[in-house]
UniProtKB/TrEMBL annotation:
<keyword id="KW-0378">Hydrolase</keyword>
<feature type="domain" description="Amidohydrolase-related">
    <location>
        <begin position="50"/>
        <end position="436"/>
    </location>
</feature>
<protein>
    <recommendedName>
        <fullName>D-hydantoinase/dihydropyrimidinase</fullName>
        <ecNumber>3.5.2.2</ecNumber>
    </recommendedName>
</protein>
<dbReference type="Pfam" id="PF01979">
    <property type="entry name" value="Amidohydro_1"/>
</dbReference>
<comment type="function">
    <text>Catalyzes the hydrolysis of dihydropyrimidines and of the structurally related DL-5-mono-substituted hydantoins, to produce N-carbamoyl-D-amino acids.</text>
</comment>
<dbReference type="InterPro" id="IPR032466">
    <property type="entry name" value="Metal_Hydrolase"/>
</dbReference>
<dbReference type="GO" id="GO:0072527">
    <property type="term" value="P:pyrimidine-containing compound metabolic process"/>
</dbReference>
<dbReference type="InterPro" id="IPR011778">
    <property type="entry name" value="Hydantoinase/dihydroPyrase"/>
</dbReference>
<dbReference type="InterPro" id="IPR050378">
    <property type="entry name" value="Metallo-dep_Hydrolases_sf"/>
</dbReference>
<comment type="subunit">
    <text>Homotetramer.</text>
</comment>
<dbReference type="GO" id="GO:0004157">
    <property type="term" value="F:dihydropyrimidinase activity"/>
</dbReference>
<dbReference type="GO" id="GO:0005829">
    <property type="term" value="C:cytosol"/>
</dbReference>
<feature type="modified residue" description="N6-carboxylysine">
    <location>
        <position position="150"/>
    </location>
</feature>
<dbReference type="InterPro" id="IPR011059">
    <property type="entry name" value="Metal-dep_hydrolase_composite"/>
</dbReference>
<dbReference type="GO" id="GO:0055086">
    <property type="term" value="P:nucleobase-containing small molecule metabolic process"/>
</dbReference>
<keyword id="KW-0862">Zinc</keyword>
<keyword id="KW-0479">Metal-binding</keyword>
Amino acid sequence: MSLLIRGATVVTHEESYPADVLCVDGVIRAIGDNLDTPAGCEILDGSGRYLMPGGIDPHTHMQLPFMGTVASEDFFSGTAAGLAGGTTSIIDFVIPNPQQSLLEAFHTWRGWAEKSASDYGFHVAITWWSEQVAEEMGELVAHHGVNSFKHFMAYKNAIMAADDTLVASFERCLQLGAVPTVHAENGELVYHLQRKLIAQGMTGPEAHPLSRPPQVEGEAASRAIRIAETLGTPLYLVHVSTREALDEIAYARAKGQPVYGEVLPGHLLLDDSVYRHPEWSTAAGYVMSPPFRPREHQEALWRGLQSGNLHTTATDHCCFCADQKAAGKDDFSRIPNGTAGIEDRMAVLWDAGVNSGRLSMHEFVALTSTNTAKIFNLFPRKGAIRVGADADLVLWDPLGTRTISAETHHQRVDFNIFEGRTVRGIPSHTISQGRVLWADGDLRAEPGAGRYVERPAYPSVFEVLSRRAEHQRPTPVQR
Ligand code: URP
Ligand code: ZN
Ligand code: ZN
């Protein structure tokens, strides 16, 4: 099985150059000028377009059981929509119930994900703590290709991890060479504000952002960062949405702490006025956590991307249809939290980031693919255009346009937070494992074609951290 992409401009996180790229058996075999065409090779004309590493979305929730319902997008429909948007890999989340075995939950999610159309991996959430959890974390890292664990600092009375769990789990991550990640919101404050707002008669979606103000995220970000600092672990903050959290990251990084931040296109582009929409179902369609923020936060997030204090873009793709959102008709805190985006992430970021001059094309590649691959130890298998790398690629048409709409998107949900937005710069072709699965609007995704991708422990950041720890090893006083 071979594919030759001719005449495109290869764009990576660090360089761009014209070249042909030959993919054989799912791997990049050759890069160069005027490459010979092997017998039977499919040829794809890349002229006038950029060839970039396929997108990696490090934060999705396909068919997640959450808030009394199940996310409407399954692993096939969601990864297929990703391919239509240029994304060729996802890292989804296994979220065990408190008291549930991590391994049992992991195998459940592996079963669900078998129908994926593109490659996938898993972070595993730590929703409770015990010796068994510690042991199973070890098992997941040693034998199941998991190198990151997620901690929800919000969602009290459900999956929230309190400080004792954070400390125990971060310490265990350090022992295992795994990256702790956090959803940073102070769950106690959110719970308190939700109850208070409802008591005041504030039951609609407009109360959602009021129950999760920016300082609630800033406090949790600061707490997680300082726990990581104290224990000497790296830390990855998912869906950073506020200036407050960003300031904490920037402060920590200025002191040399390896803290990484992820941003969602929605937080870069939408503001909290959406929750005051007169239609209940429209306002509820935007309910996700953390919520969309007042305008000033968006400019701060763009500056975070430009300055290197934010590192990845994700979607937190977690779809609920209008009938599911309606569960919170009389109580905003019961609206299932989540919005879609896997199909739109790359085009929205290109349009608002590259076209506007906020980001270079190289930064775009870093933010949509390479940085994620590096942080979660997939590089250079993913996130790179190199001989030997997986042939996961996107051919980008900088002049192509699309008007985003729930009527036409491939995501299995009846709402799109970017409804009506026209973007310039779209994937004309998406290549997964060397096969063209999206071609000028023709989606050829196949259930089960995606592979589970194991991520080895000890991403490179641990090298420097272990040397630091060695240097700072406590010494007893000899008396
Ligand atoms: O609202 C969201 N983000 N739903 C999915 C769960 C999470 O917090 O990531
Ligand atoms: Zn979250
Ligand atoms: Zn999430």
